[in-house]
Amino acid sequence: MHYDHQVQVRYGETDQMGVVHHANYLLYFEEARTAFLAHHGQPYGQLEKDGLALPVRKLDLRFRAPAHYEDKLCVRVSVERITAASVRFVYEIKRPINDVLIATGCTELACIDLTSTPRRPHVLPEAMRELFG
What is the DSSP-derived secondary structure letter of residue 13? Predict the structure, then answer.
């Protein structure tokens, strides 16, 4: 199962040459991931209200081609792997107008209990496991 999220590169996301700064790809990943969750009935804000969070514990990003100011990009996100208390998302960013692959990557998120001090791992809720499965 995947989800396609559209973004348009804003001026403030680029350097002096109009190329997207590398850190902004992580924001595109996060925006696509939270849109994926909401689209499938699990808004991230509700997860936190329920006392859980999914912080990123590992990430990988590979650049393939530059994206530029005003480019319309498609961020495809899907779930690659689920364990008892973590989930791994994979991403592909393309410029649909000419089907150019811009970047690929993945993030691994751990499920934690926001009510514990210190924060402790928590089993992914069954509804979320079903969503990802």
Answer: G
Name the nearest CA neighbour of 109 among 49, 46, 64, 44: 44
d(CA 133, CA 131): 6
Q: Which residue segments constitute the domains of the chain, with CATH numbers given? A: 2-132 (3.10.129.10)
**DSSP strand E in 66-119: where?**
72-82, 86-95, 100-110, 112-113
- Per-residue model confidence as pLDDT tens digits over 71-109: 999 999 999 999 999 999 999 999 999 999 999 999 999
Predicted confidence at residue 15, as pLDDT, reads: 94
Q: Where are the alpha helices (DSSP H) in the chain?
A: 24-39, 44-49, 126-132
- The Cα–Cα gap between 86 and 75 comes to 22
Q: Which of helix, strand or coil describes residue 11?
A: helix
The residues, ordered by sequence, that sit 6+ positions from 109 with a Cβ below 8 Å of its Cβ are: 54, 55, 56, 57, 86, 87, 88, 89
Number of helices (H), then strands (E), belonging to the chain: the values are 3, 8
